[in-house]
Design a protein that fits this description.
about 90 residues, alpha+beta, 3-stranded antiparallel sheet, 2 helices, about 20% strand
């Protein structure tokens, strides 16, 4: 059964690598389109949730034009989950 677990971990790792390559490829395509508009796309994985956040940034001013989902919202949700965990831990 231990070999089954190691195979599952390897499969998950391969899936993650494929998803990352697909994401990088998609962002690269998007950047080719945005280049004419003096903008670029960037992506980052949220620390606590692992959700992917995409930003569209003006290359001249470095201004963030769009962020999906907004990092502030994910941070707020993470904090609320943390606080809810504290409340439940105290009740237990």
């Amino acid at each position: 059964k231990e070999t089954d677990l190691s195979h599952k971990k390897e499969d998950l790792k391969k899936d993650d690598e494929l998803k990352k390559k697909e994401l990088q490829k998609s962002v690269s395509k998007l950047n080719k389109l945005l280049n004419k508009e003096h903008a670029r796309a960037e992506y980052k994985v949220h620390d606590k949730f692992g959700d992917i956040m995409v930003k569209i940034v003006n290359t001249d001013t470095k201004e963030v034009l769009l962020e999906v989902p907004p990092k502030k919202i994910l941070d707020l949700v993470a904090k609320l989950c943390e606080l809810a965990g504290v409340v439940f831990d105290k009740k237990a």
